[in-house]
Design a protein that fits this description.
Elements (H helix, E strand, L loop, with lengths): L6 E5 L3 E6 L2 E6 L10 H8 L3 E5 L10 H11 L3 H9 L1 E5 L2 H4 L11 H11 L16 E5 L6 E5 L10 E2 L10 E2 L11 H11 L5 E5 L18 H13 L5 E5 L6 E5 L1 H4 L5 E5 L5
Helix pairs in contact: 2-5
Length: 281
Amino acid sequence: MKSKYFLFLFLFFSCTSLQANNQKIIFLSCIKQYLPQPLWEKIKAENPDTVLLIGDNIYADSGDPDVLALGYAKLNEQSILQELRSTSFVTGTWDDHDFGKNDAGREWEGKDIAQEAFLDFFQVPEDSPRRQQQGVYSSLTIGDEKQRVQIIILDTRYFRSPLNPTSYPLHYIYRYFESEDEEQDMLGDAQWQWLEEKLNEPAELRIIVSSIQFAAENHGSERWEALPKEKQRMFDLLKRTHANNVMFISGDRHSSTLMLMNPEDTGLTFPLYDFTSSSFN
């Protein structure tokens, strides 16, 4: 990233604060709603401008709307979360456990029910275009002119094609090989087109939110590398749109990791970071 665009990262073990061009952004993932959540106090003390819940915001694993509603209601019992809604912009994306099924993608029959529950939790207005689209992707731009921070929030669940599973007993330690399917898909045509449009908008810094890790190559769990053609498609799109000063943030893994992809490995003109912050409890 060009040095004149300042980005400071403060790691709180299970959530992370980004200080980006005078905007303080907190992101977190993997909230077991039935367990203690003392980090809300830490988040409140940071007085953030934006709070991003970037996946597994509840553990529901169900297509039953009542189960999803109860899970979100339990999370909403956190009084500081309610306070943050009035002082900060609270938004996010989902991952598999709030999507409704472990490691699920487009084949999950409960995804539309889960989307409605998700939008209700984030208090998306009934007349919002997000209520009409398939998938929960969205974006926002914050900061003053010439210090604009664009936050692009992806949905890596609704449209994702099946992964390439390993077999017993390897599946217990390395779940997915890289897919060789020529029709593999991570985001779906509509979301890819939307993403290109967003990357063509003006911004000095871009933060791309992906619930699963983008940079990771050294584990067999869900990751962009499991759909390698789609990962390359992302590199190609970033090059085609001349989108500089880009970083990824991710969750899912129940551990915090800062990963770096060098320009010689990506074909980009800048180092690409992926910062994972997880899990909240």
